[in-house]
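Q: What structure does this chain adopt?
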Amino acid sequence: MSSPVSINFEARLRKIRGKMEEEGIDLIVGTRLRTLGYVTGAFIPWRSAVIIPLQGEPEIFTILLDVERVKDDSWIKNVRGWGPAEGMYLEPLIADSIKNLGYDKGRIGIEYGQEWILASGHILASEYDNLRKLLPDAEFKNATPLIDNLTLYKEPEEIKLLRRASEITDVGQQAVKDSLEVGMTETEVAGIAEYAMRSG
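A:
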């Protein structure tokens, strides 16, 4: 099997900022699973957001229990927790970050729209309404097409990683094929595949 490769996330950030300049966007609030992974390099399955300013450091907001893991997995070390408690709600934290960066009167790109996957992570209508109330002088623009365009084209390193993932999946599929018996549960089958993929 081929050896692992790594993505240059800082180069990716420069590409995003180039597109932001073209579209006149000062800051993007990314909320989709696709965007979180593309920008941060971490798997962030919870309701989270990444702030991508035209100038300044990106910032990740994720649920409190996952902050340290996300810090370990991402190249972005500015990770803050949010949760259902006074002073810890997601939208006010995002709005405060935007104000601190000086973009509270700027043009803010928000990911909204439709997607095939129910859990893709588009901003909720209530979150969008709250952000508009918290940032009354900002202009909001749909940033979904901008991110979709960037993620459509795969970098050479990304293609290598996709191939590696496919090789690992093949190992799991072969292990299941070799071990499959009538009466096995779905959980047993998944366990065989996962063990083989992690071991191989």
